[in-house]
Design goal:
This protein has no helices and 10 strands. By secondary structure, it is mostly beta strands.
């Protein structure tokens, strides 16, 4: 019989006698960007958000309204022990607006959904990722 233990509110489960990914030395090799939700847009009306991973754009959308969720379903590799994800709002022809950034470590728990908050420039976006 296995005994399940919830770890510190992370939403992950470990089984008695099994080491966590971090404890067993398992490192994530990639990040799956699952979905993004615009709780509050930066512009009045709609936004044109884009995501960058380690300074490389990999996803964008147009006409995102408050309350909308967009599926991303893109996987990016770790190029080192950590990576930087940045959320921008395209404002062509004006300068783009930085809505926030987050650093993900390859040593973070593998297989657990993580929600990142981006709240700069009066916006509020939630980005769901899973380390693989």
């Amino acid at each position: 019989m296995a005994l399940a233990v919830v770890l510190g509110g992370l939403g992950s489960t470990a089984f008695a006698g099994q080491a966590s990914a971090a404890e067993s030395g398992v490192q994530a090799t990639q990040v799956e960007f699952v979905r993004i939700q615009a709780q509050v847009t930066e512009d009045a009306g709609s936004d044109e958000p884009r995501l960058e991973w380690d300074d490389q754009q990999f996803w964008s959308a147009t006409d995102v309204l408050e309350g909308q969720t967009r599926d991303i379903n893109v996987t990016q590799p770790f190029h080192s022990a950590s990576g930087l994800v940045e959320l921008w709002e395209d404002d062509a022809p004006d300068d783009d607006d930085a809505l926030g950034s987050a650093t993900l470590a390859a040593s973070d728990p593998v297989g657990t959904e993580k929600v990142l908050d981006f709240t700069q420039d009066d916006a509020n976006y939630k980005l769901t990722v899973v380390l693989r």
